[in-house]
Specification:
- The chain has 316 residues and is α+β, with helices and mostly antiparallel strands.
- It has helices at residues 23-28, 54-66, 152-160, 167-178, 218-229, 311-314, and strands at residues 32-35, 38-41, 73-82, 92-101, 105-114, 117-128, 183-187, 202-209, 246-258, 268-278, 281-289, 295-307.
- The chain has a twelve-stranded antiparallel sheet with strand order 1-2-4-5-6-3-9-12-11-10-8-7.
- Strand 11 and strand 12 (295-307) form a beta hairpin.
- The termini are far apart.
C-alpha cells in the first residue's frame, strides 16, 4: 500500500517530506486524454470478485465529466447506471457529451465503454456557487473519533490471532487483508465484523483516501469521494440477512449529491443504512460527514442481491 497514509494536518498544509500523493489521484483516477472529450482509464485495484470495482468507474466517469467544464463550477450531483459487468483485463474508454452549459448549471453525460459497448452511463451536473438563506441539515451521529478506533487491517490482524477462529472466516479475512485497497477504514462498531447474527441495516465507519491529496480543485475531492462511497456500501442491506450465504451481489445504480466542501484525504464519517430490500434487490442510503459535523455528501445505491436458499425456502 502507498506510503504517506498517516495523519495529515487538518489545515491543508503541504505534504510532509517523503509523503506520497494518494494513489487515488496519481493512478486510479488519472485518465489519459485521447481526443476532445475522450479519455482512457486503467485499473489499480480489482476486488476478489474479479469484476471492476464500481466506485472506480464512477470516480473515473466524474473525472472525465469534470475535464469538460470550466474551473469556476463545482460538481453538485451525479447519477449512474451500471449496465454491464466491467472487464478488469482491458482499459475503459470514457466518452463525454456536453449536454448543456447554462449560466448556473451545466450537465455532462459520460459513457464508460469496453469492447465497443457501454458498461456505465453517467449524468453529472455542475453549478456556479450561489448563496441562499434556505439552509438546513440533519445532525451528525455522535461516535468516537477515529484516533480512538482501529483500522480494518488492525482489526483483522487481531481476529486472525484467535486460535479458535473458524477456518472459513480465517480464509475470508486473509483475502480481505491481501487486497491493496486505496481507502483507509475505521469501523465504529468493530465487534460486528465477525458477527453472523442478523443486525439492524445500519453501519458507521470513518473513511479517507490513503496518502495525501491536499488543497486543490474541489472537483478532484468529489471524484475521490465517488470512489470511496461505493466501498462496502451495498453490504449494509445484508446485515439483517447474514444467515443467507451470498450467491451474487452487484450494483445497479449509484447517485451522489455534494453539499459542502471537504477533503477526501481527511477522516469523514460514513453513515450507511438500508431502508428496504426485496425482489432480489437492496436499497442503501449514505451520508458522508466532515469531522466538524457538516454534511458533505449524500449517496444512494440499489443493487442486485441473490442468496443461496434452503430447499424449503426455494419452494415458497
Amino acid at each position: 500500500m502507498p506510503a504517506g497514509s498517516g495523519d495529515v494536518p487538518e489545515g491543508g498544509q503541504p505534504a510532509p517530506p517523503g509523503d506520497l500523493r494518494s494513489v487515488l489521484v496519481t493512478s486510479v483516477l488519472s485518465l489519459e486524454p485521447l481526443d476532445l472529450d475522450l479519455f482512457r482509464g486503467r485499473h489499480h485495484w480489482v476486488p476478489v470478485t474479479r469484476r471492476l470495482f464500481g466506485g472506480q468507474i464512477v470516480g473515473q466517469a466524474l473525472v472525465a465529466a469534470a475535464k469538460a467544464v470550466s474551473e469556476d463550477v463545482h460538481a453538485h450531483s451525479l447519477h449512474c447506471y451500471f449496465v454491464r459487468a466491467g472487464d478488469p483485463m482491458v482499459p475503459v474508454l470514457y466518452q463525454v457529451e456536453r449536454t448543456r452549459t447554462g449560466k448556473s448549471f451545466s450537465v455532462r453525460s459520460v459513457k464508460a465503454i469496453q469492447h465497443g459497448k457501454p458498461i456505465l452511463i453517467c449524468q453529472a451536473s455542475f453549478q456556479q456557487s450561489q448563496e441562499s438563506p434556505v439552509q438546513h441539515q440533519f445532525t451528525m451521529p455522535t461516535v468516537p473519533p477515529p484516533e480512538e478506533l482501529r483500522t480494518q487491517e488492525e482489526l483483522i490482524q487481531k481476529y486472525l490471532q484467535d486460535p479458535n477462529l473458524v477456518e472459513k472466516y480465517r480464509r475470508g479475512l486473509n483475502k480481505i487483508l491481501a487486497q491493496e485497497v486505496p481507502v483507509e477504514i475505521k469501523p465504529v462498531n468493530p465487534s460486528e465484523i465477525l458477527c453472523q447474527l442478523p443486525q439492524e441495516p445500519k453501519q458507521l465507519f470513518w473513511v479517507r483516501a490513503r496518502g495525501y491529496i491536499g488543497e486543490c480543485d474541489m472537483k478532484l475531492h468529489c471524484c475521490v469521494a465517488a470512489y470511496i462511497s461505493d466501498y462496502a456500501f451495498l453490504g449494509t442491506a445484508l446485515l439483517p440477512h447474514r444467515q443467507h450465504p451470498v450467491k451474487f451481489m452487484v450494483s445497479l445504480d449509484h447517485s451522489m449529491w455534494f453539499h459542502a466542501p471537504f477533503r477526501a484525504d481527511h477522516w469523514m464519517l460514513y453513515e450507511c443504512e438500508s431502508p428496504w430490500a426485496g425482489g432480489c434487490r437492496g436499497l442503501v442510503h449514505g451520508r458522508l460527514w466532515r469531522r466538524d459535523g457538516v454534511l458533505a455528501v449524500t449517496c444512494a445505491q440499489e443493487g442486485v442481491i441473490r442468496v443461496k436458499q434452503s430447499p424449503a425456502e426455494s419452494k415458497l
